[in-house]
Amino acid sequence: MVEEAPLGRKLFVAVNSAVLILLSFACLFPIVHIAALSMSSQAAAGAGLVTLWPRDFTWMSYRYILENAAFFTSFGVTLERVALGGTLSLVMVLLAAYPLSKDVRKLRSRSVYAWFFMFTTIFGGGLIPSFMVVKSLGLMDSIWALVLPTAVPVFNILLMLNFFRQIPEELEEAAFMDGAGHLRTLWSVYLPVSTPSLATNGLLILILHWNSWFDGMIYMNDVDNYPLQTYIQSIIVSSDLTNLRPDELKEINAISDKTVKAAQIFVSMLPIMAIYPFLQKYFIGGMLLGSVKG
Amino acid sequence: MNSNKTLKRLYRELPLHLMLLPPVILVLVFSYGPMAGIVIAFQDFVPANGWFNSPWIGLDNFKYVLDFPDVRQVLWNTFFIAVLKIAAGTVCPIILALSLNEVKKTLFKRGIQTIVYLPHFMSWVLLAGILIDILSPSGGIINNMLQALGMQPIYFLGDGAWFRATLIISNVWKEVGFDTIVYLAAIVSIDRTQYESAVLDGAGYTRQMWHITLPGIRGIIILLMLLNIGSILNAGFDQIFNLYSPQVYDSADILDTFVYRIGMEEMQYGVATAVGLFKSIVSFVLITLSYYLAYKVVNYRIF
């Protein structure tokens, strides 16, 4: 058994580490590359000279973004939907998870409610009927179209209720002895001990709202109402040049605004990277609590 | 006597029902509402007339779609891409989890994990923006490298076969790190004494992996494979929609993108709803089946 010998093991560890480093590099490369592009001159970017470090360093693209009203408007819409939608969803998660975490003895129709919510995760009306509902409620071009349809995230309810179930029943009984009702118990007994799960679900909902683009595309007619990701989608992905022939491309590349696009993509990634350390801290543990236990 | 008891119970439960009321109303409107809207699939739907006054046409929308020349291709693309993604998305995270498990230096391990989880949290819009740039046949960094090696540029996003490969690989790239979390957690929960006695029996690292680690996570592997049955018609709308173009419709147009185009762009609401309904029903059956199998095989319960 050659591979079991110390030398074989050393070799394995070396190769294994090298492969892992390579994989991490592959995961970081696109982000570093886009950052480098955004800080390079248009000439260098257009000529394909930029890899991992800016060429002819300049803040030009960022200066352009600062003057670009559309970018800021959409950024504002996203902040609004994150704040409004995040709060609303978290409240709905708590309102649903608390009663559902109770034993059947305390809430007889518990499983009826549970299936009522669960069923929506395995069957849906599909794109057109959902669109029609939002439209017939007069929500087109309103921030509520981005907030209400996703206001009750069933997956987060599951995570939260599994966490609530681990809270000892004695805590609740003591609260009731002191004359507290359910809402009061939820607020002053459950919430203080649920920080990890609250943080996990809060961050998850936040990211979901930050990354959503499709609802903005179908529910917003006016470009001024686009959230950030929808705006990025409309300027970058839709004006896709990949499929032009090389000669056509050369012309367009000459007036390329590659660096400006790169800057806008990079700025849109920054908030996710900013909250990433918190995600690391809460998410992995909180996620497992809810999912693996099942 | 009995009704009195029921009344008492309802009174006691009332606060809980009231708490559930807001989420129930929202779900009723925005999830069950669209389910009622499925009637459009059986109508010659005209928005001006609404749901109640559009003429009923039975299964004509379905017949119309079946006559579409592309519809078989769309179905096949959906199935093919989804299955490849499931296969790659099962094998790669397991290999990565086993590989990470062999790393004994905690700091190095945690560093790698931190980096490989990151792409999962980025939207396909942003990642597609980056991919379009780096895969471009003229001036994209990947093709620049290929050309430096004396190769012809590759139309990653303009050629059908390459497009599919790009879909699978970029999906693994985005999700592989994140998908290892569950397996790593399962590995951690394996009884340490098993390894100790294996070492006493003279088993090396390879045999420990093969006879202890892998069997130790077999349950979770089977569970995740079963649950994947439900996503056999989910080929990944966000990714494909942001990367594809008419050149690659032949090999990458899937049910979801097809529904979007005929519904939102061509405004054939009835037809698009019919195709969506077909997808919903098949998915519903598959998900139910997968939950049932998961319950039977590994005693998994959703809640």
What's the quick description here?
Chain A has 294 residues and is mainly alpha-helical. Chain A has helices spanning 6-38, 42-46, 60-67, 69-100, 110-122, 127-136, 144-147, 154-165, 169-177, 182-193, 195-211, 214-219, 228-237, 246-254, 258-291.
Q: Hey, roughly how much beta strand do the residues of chain B contain?
A: under 5%
Low-confidence stretches of chain B: none
Please report the total strand number of chain B as a whole number. 0
Q: Bin the strand percentage of chain A.
A: under 5%
Q: What would the principal axes of the Cα set say about the shape of chain A?
A: globular
Radius of gyration of chain B, rounded?
25 Å
CATH topology of the largest domain in chain B: MetI-like fold
Q: What is the typical, i.e. mean, pLDDT of chain A?
A: 86
Number of domains of chain A: 1
Number of domains of chain B: 2
Topology of chain B as a string of helices (H) and strands (E): HHHHHHHHHHHHHHH
CATH class identity of the largest domain in chain B: Mainly Alpha
Fourth CATH level, the homologous superfamily of chain A: MetI-like
Rg of chain A, alpha carbons:
25 Å
Q: How would a crystallographer describe the biggest sheet of chain B?
A: none
Helix content of chain B: over 70%
- Terminal CA distance of chain B: 34 Å
Biggest chain contact:
A-B, 107 and 105 residues
